[in-house]
Amino acid sequence: MSFLTVAFAALFYAATLLLVVGLARRIALYWKTPAPLKIPTTPAPVTQGGVVLRMFREVVFFESLFKSTKWTWVFGWMFHMALFAVLFRHLRYFQDPVWGVVTWVGPLFKYLAFAMIIGLLGLWARRLFVDRVRYISAPSDHLMLLLLLLIGVSGAMTTFVAHTDVVAVKAFFRSLMTFNFSDMPNLPSDPFIVVHLLLVALLMIIFPISKLLHAPGVFFSPTRNQIDNPREQRHIADWARKLEQ
Amino acid sequence: MAKADFEIPQLQEFPEVPAVVPGTMAHSQPYIAKPDFQEPLGFPGELPDDWHDKAIEAMGDLLGKYRSLQVYLDSCVKCGACTDKCHYYLGTSDPKNMPVGRQDLLRKVYRRHFTFAGKYFPKLVGAEDLTKEVLDDWYSYFHQCSQCRRCSVFCPYGIDTAEISMAAREIMDRIGVGQKYCNEIIGKVYKIGNNLGLPEAALADTLEGLEEDVEEDTGVAVKYPLDVKGADILLVTPSADFFAEPHVDGLIGYGKVFHEAGVSWTLSSKASEAANFGMFIGSYENMRRVSLRIREAALELGVKRIIFGECGHAWRVAYSFLNTLAGPFDFLDPNYPVPQHILEFTWGEMQKGTLNIDKSANDHMVVTFHDSCNVARASRMGSEPGGQFKIPRNVIKAVCNSFVDMAPDTIHEKTFCCGGGGGLLTDDLMELRVKGAKPRMEALKNVIEEHGVTNMAAICAICKSQFTKVLPYYGMDMDMIVSVHQLVSNAIVLTGQNSDDDDDESADDDD
Ligand code: HEM
Ligand code: HEM
Ligand code: SF4
Ligand code: SF4
């Protein structure tokens, strides 16, 4: 096995571990931190079903962002939806057998790489040229966009310009997933796929320690996930109940 | 126009988002609470030597108690959606008054001490140590947030800067850096029972005076009872209602509505204050202590229902938190929500048809309505979401012939704060209050010019006081601002009332 293959195998195990453990710990923290008061941003749903619907609109349509600024919404929504579509298409590198839908939408979804890239460029332009957004940006905010852009561009180069041995890439990842290294192939060493995978590993590692925590965070946001029923149901946290004794 | 030693913003017909000008409001700080005002609330009197460690410890404590704080400090992606939503940014151009700019003052310290990236790569993620300068910035800018939650409407994760400001104020209180205005007032509530420090005797006097005025005016003996045991309804109202203008006209209105509805009601000298400034300083313990007075008053008087008068944040604490802080209220009549808003009551009576209304009494006015932020975005009225917008307007329209709404992105959930909420209604923050009122003043001016609006109705003691003070800076008349129940009071025809409703008192509001 090539050095590259071994190094990437180790890298992806480490990155996966950090991602899963990091994210699980963060989610556990959000889960167990109590929300002592009812603070939904009203008007808010008065039933659990209503809350699920509100959250759905927030996650799928970015409803609040839509109310807020149309340009950020256009680019942001385009980027995220393209990202999810691209990731969906990526399932084919990890599944055996591959779901029918994944194969079916594959050829179509590959062009969404461009939507993802345009979305990211639009967001970056806003960050650079709108003085208010520039003011609030730390270096990490710019670098995050750069990272995703490079992942997108390197992926697109592989898809559209300098093809790689996708079968070998898949076999490599299947071996990692099944812990079956007997017929693990060498990872192709085409520069674009190497860069792509390296940056993806980096993304996985920083996910649980960066603002990408907005993805789990949105589900835990009390202003969005609480039911507006404080008069009907007494809501009290454990630490607050102790004050009553 | 009122005099000012700062520049009063120009109102624009088509409001623009100003360019960033750092530091314009760095000098704006409220007076610090003296030790005497800190200690009754359980806070140290002065900044201790180990203030830094104490502050970080307090932050850790709050992170463990409030999911909002933990999730919000982690989740912001700096998308910028909130940057042009805060009235204080729109009025001052100071980027630390952009909601995310304000949050970042706390977030940078959070990252430095509580996150991996901030511990090892502070420069990269904008993490910073808590220095005296940072603390100074905290004191300035966390007292430039009226906790109005407008930002939380527009943030894709609902990040509520009010939660961050409350936490920051609690941290500062715990290291002896409290704000005089809020903490002195909370002390008064503990000692005397209300924000204004009105003792029971003065209260009884005032109410007697009101009874005389109303009787003189209408010929009907409307009662304004205090501490009546066995009354059905306990009315808890902001203490400004007892004497300030136009608040008191609202109180007169509540009394008339109760009178016509034929219910027995009472005020309480123990709970002679609806406001709960414990919320402004983010202190659960103090907010709870202030709330418990209401429970005790209700128990002592043996009432069956609790109704709150017109007040914004008081209604938030009442509607959203009272059951949590001072519940359960299983000793009250289960047929009514606990608590109820006076507008819910009045609207209910209007639907039942118990009130005799003469709308023409308000014909000298063209009225618009200011949605108070805490009612609009942090509570509800009635059983439907959005009832907090409909019910006040329904009541106004039931008593006024001319009603006009302001621009759609300045009302309902997008309403702009009056500029004086959240514990900022103090003269030492006058510049901030005037500048923060700008977006509301713009919207108001537009309806004045386009629709001939003469009066703006409000349902919050802070809004009413703030507008009374600020309107003149913008060349408008301070008497423009009216209580919703003042309009009701004007239009209600009491059973047996003298029929000379032409010499209506508020006719001189018209100019
Ligand atoms: C539940 C899933 C997710 C939701 C609801 C969500 C939602 C959002 C929203 C509303 C924004 C702000 C608007 C914008 O700038 O686009 C945003 C920003 C961002 N999201 Fe997500 N997101 C999710 C998952 C992800 C994932 C998985 C990634 C990356 C791998 C990601 C990366 C980003 C980045 C980098 C930004 C900042 C863009 C900028 O710099 O302007 N998001 N997200
Ligand atoms: C371990 C994880 C990943 C592997 C093994 C992987 C592998 C690949 C491969 C082999 C291609 C080329 C496909 C072809 O030639 O048809 C590709 C394309 C691409 N990848 Fe990835 N990738 C991974 C993660 C990601 C992530 C997290 C993103 C986005 C943030 C991403 C974005 C893209 C894009 C935009 C393309 C081009 C469009 C497409 O083919 O769908 N990849 N990736
Ligand atoms: S809560 Fe209101 S005052 Fe505070 S930052 Fe948000 S918009 Fe501004
Ligand atoms: S809208 Fe929310 S996520 Fe975006 S910058 Fe403001 S606080 Fe951060």
Q: Could you characterize what this model shows?
A:
The complex is a heterodimer of chains A (245) and B (511). By secondary structure, chain A is mostly helical. Chain A has a single domain (3-37, 68-216), classed as Fumarate Reductase Cytochrome B subunit (Up-down Bundle). Helices cover 71% and strands 0% of the residues of chain A. In chain A, α4 (70-90) packs antiparallel against α6 and α6 runs antiparallel to α8. The model of chain A has no long low-confidence stretch (mean pLDDT 96). Chain B contains 22 helices and seven strands. Chain B is globular. Chain B starts with 34 loop residues before the first helix and ends in a 20-residue tail after the last helix. Classes of the chains: A mainly alpha (245), B mainly alpha (511). At the A-B interface, α1, α3, α6, α7 and α8 of A face α2, α3, α5, α7 and α9 of B. One iron/sulfur cluster binds next to α5 of chain B.
SSE map:
The complex is a heterodimer of chains A (245) and B (511).
Chain A: H1 3-32, H2 48-61, H3 63-68, H4 70-90, H5 100-109, H6 112-129, H7 131-136, H8 139-161, H9 166-178, H10 191-206, H11 214-220, H12 222-225, H13 238-242
Helix pairs in contact in A: 1-10, 4-5, 4-6, 6-8, 8-10
Chain B: H1 35-38, H2 51-65, H3 67-75, H4 87-92, H5 99-114, H6 116-120, H7 122-125, H8 132-141, H9 150-154, H10 161-174, H11 180-191, H12 200-218, E1 233-236, H13 247-261, E2 265-266, H14 284-301, E3 305-308, H15 312-326, E4 340-341, H16 342-352, E5 367-369, H17 373-378, H18 387-399, H19 430-436, H20 438-451, E6 455-458, H21 461-470, E7 481-483, H22 484-491
Parallel strand pairs in B: 1-2, 1-3, 3-4, 5-6, 6-7
Helix pairs in contact in B: 2-3, 2-10, 5-10, 13-22, 14-15, 16-18, 18-22
Tell me the structural class of chain A.
mainly alpha
End-to-end separation of chain A in angstroms reads 66 Å
Share of β-strand residues of chain B? under 5%
- What structural class do helix, strand and pairing data of chain B support? mainly alpha
Number of strands of chain B: 7
Radius of gyration of chain A: 22 Å
Using the alpha-carbon principal axes, give the shape of chain A.
globular
User: What's the number of structural domains of chain A?
Assistant: 1
**Proportion of helical residues of chain B:** 40-55%
The low-confidence runs of chain B, each spanning 5 or more residues with pLDDT under 50, are: 501-511
How many domains of chain B? The number is 2
Order of helices and strands of chain A: HHHHHHHHHHHHH
CATH superfamily of chain A: Transmembrane di-heme cytochromes, Chain C
- What is the share of helical residues of chain A? over 70%
